[in-house]
Amino acid sequence: MVGIYARVSTEEQAKSGFSLDDQIRECRKKAGTSKVAEYVDDASGEFLDRPSLTRLRRDVKDGVITKIVCLDPDRLSRKLMNQLLITDEFDKKGIDLVFVNGEYAKTPEGQLFYSMRGAIAEFEKAKINERMSRGRREKARQGRVLRDFQIYGYGYDSVKEQIVINESEAAVVRLIFDLFTQPNDLVQGMNGIAVFLTNKGVPTKRGARVWHRQVVRQMLMNEAYVGRFYQNKWNTEGMLGNQYRQPDEKIRMKMRPKEEWITLPCPSIIEEAKFEHVQRLLKESRRRWAGQSVNEYLLSGLVRCGSCGNTMPGRKAKNWGRSIFEYTDVKNTAGAKNKGCGRHMKCDSLDQFVWEAVRSWLHNPDELAVAVEDRVETPVEQVELERVQKDLEKTKNGRKKLLTLFASSEDDIGEEEIRIELKRWKEKEDVLHQRLGELMEQIGSQNDHESSHNLVQEAAEFYLAKMPDELSFEDKKELIRHVVREVRVFEDGLEIYTF
């Protein structure tokens, strides 16, 4: 039986005379018989794992096919190594391999010529890809948007080659940002927003009826909504063949250096100040919107020890046989890098102090605005940064002294003891490095004073619209989270850090 193999992967190939119908017709002429089996793939020639090619190789192995006709060697594969692998496999089975464009001879000269053609085909493919990529980049630098990127809130004007606002979707985008940043009785967190939109029957960009938490999160993080949209940001080279690869062999998308990004014109939907505030909330989301525990804590995820830097979650403890609730920095979990310094504080005392402070600010929002401005002028994080830097220097010196002592000592110091001690110092250093990074990020970020003031005003309006006695535990909890970023407990007092 004669087998005909044909492949096409792109419209460009079809327009250049490589359409499947043309290939099959020319191969039938070359075969000289109507009794043929057709093997047709619509896929990239870069990979061997193609449905029809796999079927052809299996039929060759089973002896069903004795002759194969193909338009050109690059139809078998665009990579020389794969071409040689396939032809060697066919040669071992005694298959008569025939090409419409040229002959395949099993002589040294024929093999050399065949290899040269394969190398040229692979080079040609690389040059085509390079030219197409360069062309797209050049058009992007001219401010032209070449396709619809399917961003919720936007449409695409194919005539002007520009991104335009879809007003009906843009209204939903603004609603999502408002629900996430403003105190309200409708939703809580990203999952609540997704459920809310699903219940309201709002379709997603692809027309799905169900919204997912991750979709909401991606929208809240999308810089396009403040007019920052980039092309050439991600390197997706090689990902086309992921469908043919094993999970551990798949090529992942990588971010290119920022200087290679190309800015495309994009109208903004969200104010810059609101977007930056959302990003600050998202950084805290793992702690701020932690899952519900057996016991509820007003300041859950907000309290941190000012000495060791550990978070201080709430817990139920025993004191002289009586149950109490407290915030503590003690970490009893296996593998905890920092066990904490043992600081703890009763929940009712800390809750009352923080709530009274927040309530005072809500009654007098201007007080908080002044406090925020004072904190920006002389950031309290700077004091903490200096302390952490000193502790880090001490820790490094401690490790060096330990290594020097071990190297110079004539005493029989146990190697295992040294290893344990070095590990303890290294863990402490890692914790300090992590805390240093957090502080540097906090100091480096430029808070928008007007945005902070507006957010406090919104929280104050929500608070004052209700009688104080009507505020539920959840109302208080959410109000605190719209004003307070962190509560840090020190040996001689505490500090409340606002946005």
Describe this structure in words.
It is a single chain. With 499 residues, the protein is of the alpha/beta class. Helix content is 49%, strand content 14%. The protein contains 17 helices and 16 strands. A 4-stranded parallel β-sheet has the order 2-1-3-4, sandwiched between helices. The chain has a 3-stranded mixed β-sheet with strand order 11-15-16, with no helix packed on it. A 3-stranded antiparallel β-sheet has the order 12-13-14. α13 (365-377) packs antiparallel against α16 and α14 runs antiparallel to α15. It starts with a strand and ends with a strand.
Strand content: 5-15%
| Average pLDDT level | 78
What integer value in Å does the Rg equal? Answer: 33 Å
Give the oligomeric state of the chains in this entry, treating copies of one chain as homo and distinct chains as hetero: single chain
Distance between the termini: 76 Å
How many β-strands, per DSSP? 16
Number of separate helices: 17
Strand order of the largest sheet: 2-1-3-4
> Main beta sheet: strand number and arrangement?
4 strands, parallel
Class inferred from helices and paired strands: alpha/beta
Contiguous uncertain segments of 5+ residues: 374-379, 446-450
Helix content: 40-55%
Spatial shape: elongated
